[in-house]
Amino acid sequence: MSPNQRDRACGRVLKAVVLSAIACACVSAAGCGDHPPGDSAARSALPPMQTPVGPIPGPERQPARPPNPYHGERGGMTEGRTLFVHFNCVGCHGGRAGGGMGPSLRDVDWLYGDTDAQIFNSIAEGRDQGMPAWGTKLNDDQIWKLVAYIKSLRTPDEPNPPS
Amino acid sequence: MTRRLRFPLLGAMVGGAVAAVSCGDPENMLSPAGSAARRIAHLGWFVLLTFSVVTIVMWGLVFWLAARRRGTLAHHLPWNAPEDRRWIVIGGFAIPVLVLGTIFVVMLKSMAAFPMGDDEMHATAAEVRVIGHQWWWEVQYPAVRAQDTIVTANEIHIPAGRPIDIELRSSDVIHSFWVPRLHGKVDLFPGQVVNRIRVEADAPGRYYGQCSEYCGPQHAHMLLLVSADRPADYQAWLDRQRAPAAAPGQAFAERGREVFMTGQCALCHSIRGTEAQGKVGPDLTHIGSRAGIASNSLRNDTASLAAWVTHAQSLKPSAIMPNITAFTGEDLRALVAYLQGLK
Fold first, then answer.
1. Do B267 and A132 touch (CB under 8 A)?
2. Mean pLDDT, to the nearest integer, of B181-190?
3. Does some domain include residue B184?
4. Closest approach of chain A CAs to the CA of B77, in angstroms?
5. Is B101 in the same domain as B126?
6. Is A88 on the interface with B (CB under 8 A)?
7. What is the pLDDT of residues B47-105, one digit of tens each?
8. Does A102 touch chain B (CB under 8 A)?
9. Residue B31 belongs to what H/E stretch?
10. Which of B267, B322, B324 sits opposite A134 (nearest CB)?
11. CB contacts < 8 Å between A and B, how many?
């Protein structure tokens, strides 16, 4: 190898090293976002929704509802679980409400809001893209039991939780 | 490959190509069944033949050159000798301009034959409205009186020999309407955009189409049937479809009606003339008269109907139809009998 050739080879190696260093820097800069370390495996790639989109844009225009009579009541949650299976909510939302062809009810994302009244309205009036209006089939009492069951998901009170 | 095999194989390939073109299977754009599709097929054949000629000439030149060029550069003129430049001018410029220019003009002529402008297309109300859903086609025949409007799904009937305007919309994502034997593709857009397509079938027959814009995991199971009927049959079909659902004739089907109304079916599906007014899934008023279910991905028979009700998510995963398994066998059979009776 002549000195001239050696110089050229060294130059090529140096160029490759510099370029890969830049590439590494870019990748790590893109990779280290603002999420806390150690949390990435447990969470999906998308951040949780901060505000529900609601059925129509603008301020809330849903009927107001009284507080859930079964709030925090074990009996209501268990009956809600029975209704959840009996009326085939499991057909779309999954056997333990973890999602199937319909959205998961166990996760933190609530497109139409997660208050008792908002969940009641989602069940009673139906939502876009597949949720039928159950208000014609279920009475208010049954819907409140379903709401109680849905709110109990991921809490120690959940009846028949996934093992 | 032996020399003996070469000609039979070539013959089989040509024969296969001819058979594919001429056998007229339901989605073959090279066997057009309407004036619009014929114009597109003619253009396709013209372009195919032109490019075949160009390809054959170019390969001939390559082989000729390969066979002819021997020896060193000293025996040949350099590439940039003045007398060789005319090859670049003729072969690299004049001939491509001529060929591509001709194709461009022929294509413009074909396009000019279609109704293009909004004014022309929207001068009259469309007879049929098609709304794309993930993953099925809602079909409406709008009428002046709301109760005369026909709502059905996945199956369009048109009179043979008469152009029909179809209005295209989408409820969710972009779909594309393509019945290859009748016309080219036109997209269905969500929102305010309303497209139109004017189709005409020469003769009565069944023409299949398919969503041709990827619209999600079940895009391939979004088939559409266009049935071209004789004018009298078309009118009879319209009259039948306009009527509300007939009451079930026998006790078994009546039991099926009860299962439908008291179970979850009625929440998502409509059957005109009953209390079932769900708007989530396809209208089932005359489901028994349709050729297919699940957007024509299954035949409309007893086994498919029962399988679809209990295991839609296995047949068409993530379709909007859930698995509904909480039936007794007798109830399921009654339900299927009721649906089949909705002619």
1. yes
2. 94
3. yes
4. 37
5. no
6. yes
7. 999 999 999 999 998 999 888 866 666 666 666 666 667 878 888 899 999 999 999 99
8. yes
9. none
10. B267
11. 38
**B235 within domain boundaries:** no
A162: left (phi over 0), alpha (psi -120 to 50) or beta: beta
- Which residues are B186's β-sheet partners? B177
Mutation for testing the A interface, residue in B135, B264, B321 having most A CBs under 10 Å? B264
The upper half-sphere exposure of residue A122, i.e. CA atoms within 13 Å in the direction of its Cβ, equals 24
What predicted TM-score, i.e. pTM, was given to this entire model? 0.79
The residue out of B62, B81, B112 marking a domain boundary is B112
Interface test with A, best of B221, B280, B311, B313 (most A CBs within 10 A): B280
B81: containing domain: 3-112
- CATH at B221: 2.60.40.420
> Measured between alpha carbons, how far is B58 from B60 in angstroms, rounded to an integer?
5
A65-120: pLDDT as tens digits: 899 999 988 999 999 999 999 999 999 999 899 998 899 999 988 988 889 999 99
Q: What ipTM was predicted for this assembly?
A: 0.71
Joined together, the tokens standing for residue A122 give 């989602």
Q: Positive or negative CA dihedral for B303, B306, B308, B312?
A: negative
**Across A36-61, average pLDDT:** 61
Which residues in chain A touch residue B264, judged by CB atoms under 8 angstroms apart? Answer: 87-88, 132, 137
Q: Does residue A28 belong to the interface with chain B, where contact is any CB pair within 8 Å? A: no
3-state secondary structure at position A88: coil
Residues B79 and B140 in one domain: no
For A89, name the nearest residue in chain B, comparing CA atoms only: B322
Report yes or no: B121 and B199 within 8 Å, Cβ to Cβ.
no
Query: Does residue B243 lie in a domain region?
Result: no
> Does residue B105 lie in a domain region?
yes
